[in-house]
Amino acid sequence: MESQALRKYPLLDKAGLIPVAPENPESLRHFLRKACKILGQGHVLWITPQGHFSDVRSRPIRLQTGFAHLARRVPSAMLVPLAIEYTFWNESRPELLLRFGDPVSALGSTGTQNTTGLMEEALTTTMETLARDAIMRDPSKFRTLSQGAGGIGGLYDVGRRIRQWARGKAFQPRHDQ
């Protein structure tokens, strides 16, 4: 994460985020050393290579080349694009939708620019696939990992509960049932 943004959220530093100052070569070397060590131990490393927060609809996707330098140093690393969207379907709180794309290999790549381009294409495809699935609002396209409480709450759900009670039916707070 960009070091300037990380200073605003010190808790994230404790969560393992690595501060990066793009204008500082020593900061970039520190990132590469730490990331190589993490990957070399067989661990997962989550990277946001755009270098800034952006809207999921922004195109074209432009990634910083730092992750491609990392992939060149750790050729066994698997580069997997991940698209994330928060979308409202039927409840008062959003759904968190994730889609993993096809892995991108840095092996045989002709350089960091090529690896970066391949990852930009893969991430774009993954994001567009997720967007289409989100618009369809078809839960069968996804696997539910965690489900929060349903319903709106407050007076609205009190009214719904009374209406269901008057009909002799059990109250179902979820809107998709």
From TrEMBL:
It comes from the Bacteria. GO terms for molecular function: acyltransferase activity. The keyword Transferase applies. This is Phospholipid/glycerol acyltransferase. Keywords: Acyltransferase, Transferase. SUPFAM superfamilies: Glycerol-3-phosphate (1)-acyltransferase. It comes from Gluconobacter thailandicus NBRC 3257.
